[in-house]
Amino acid sequence: MRNILVTGGAGFIGSNLALELQSRHPEARMVVVDDFRSGDFKNLRGFRGDVVAADVSRLDWDGQFGDRVFDAIFHEASITDTTVHDQFLQVRDNVEGFRRLLAFASRHGTAVVYASSAATYGICSGIQTEEQPPAPANVYAFSKVQLDNLAREHAGRHAGSRVVGLRYFNVYGPGEVHKKAAASMIFQLYNQMKAGKRPRVFTAGEQKRDFVYVKDVVALTIAAASAPRCTVMNCGSGHAISFNGVIASLNRALGTSLEPEYIDNPYGHFYQPHTEADMSRARAEVGFSPSWAPAEGIADYVRHLKSR
Question: At the topology level of CATH, where does 3-171+211-238+278-286 sit?
Fold first, then answer.
């Protein structure tokens, strides 16, 4: 790849992706587009490419880039805060940004990889497969379902196009510190335990999540640009680990023995007891298998955090 564009490139996943692409393709012309609402310039330290400060839902793509042809566009820009309940804002920014991007990409047949979400599965339990019908429980998830719909419709109208969506599960790792309260539970629990506090989780800590290390997320996102067809794929670790298991892994990595503090769950039946990505499609489409099991990823992440 000689020309690469990453939207949302100052954010958590986007910045890890941009820096890894730069490392793999040192001669490529790299462009990041970000409006810095939820990104941070510190995430792009060491980035040597061009940074366009713009909102992708309002960007004049042709005016900004003219006839420049990109080999791949990685679309990570989004309102990712699920506590934003302004439905018009969430849907307009997330959906219209993607619609504009697809129109620009279609002019030159550019491959597009975009961030969908496991939130599209809704409040369900067990292993999630791509064949499950969407059941969004909030407007953020609803907006991501619309991205999947747009991608499918685009593929039907543009023969030979390559648009691939990735349903990210619970991503954690370097580059999320700026998200503060919206950072992963692994980071939240690490902060509590690093301060010598007992980690707080809902009773009785056996709820399970598919926590996926950002290094695996980046690897699959890059691999998806070479997918042979338009599709949507899960992006998880393929493992479900309980919050008690996360705490045990953090204790090992930190050399501590802090017991969980259990608190009542105020969400009742609206809280997912178990998420787990079926990774069969990613293996079949692009030959990808996650490299980081939760315990190994957590240990690597703690080493990174302790070295900061």
Answer: Rossmann fold (3.40.50)
The CATH number of 173-209+240-275+292-307, from 3.40.309.10, 3.40.50.300, 3.60.21.10, 3.90.25.10, is 3.90.25.10
What is the dihedral angle through the alpha carbons of 37, 39, 42, 46, rounded to the nearest 10 degrees?
-130
CA 246 distance to own-chain centroid: 20
Number of Cβ within a 10 Å radius of residue 181: 7
- Residue 260 CA to residue 36 CA, distance in Å, equals 36
Q: Which of 179, 194, 215, 262 is catalytic?
A: 179
Residue 113 has phi, psi (to 5 degrees) of -115, 125
The span from the CA of 240 to the CA of 261, in Å, is 21
**114 carries an active-site annotation:** no
pLDDT, one tens digit per residue, over 245-280 is 999 999 999 999 999 999 999 887 778 889 999 999
Q: Residues 74, 51: contact at Cβ < 8 Å?
A: no
Q: Tokens 């949507």 correspond to what residue?
A: 232
In angstroms, the CA 206 to CA 215 distance is: 26
pTM above 0.85, yes or no: yes
pLDDT of residue 263: 96
Q: Is 179 a catalytic residue?
A: yes
Q: Active-site residue among 140, 190, 213, 301?
A: 140
Listed residue (201, 308, 195, 190) closest to 265, CA to CA: 201
pLDDT, tens digit, 9 for 90 and up, residues 121-152: 999 888 999 999 999 999 999 999 999 999 99
**Which H or E run includes 113?**
strand 111-117
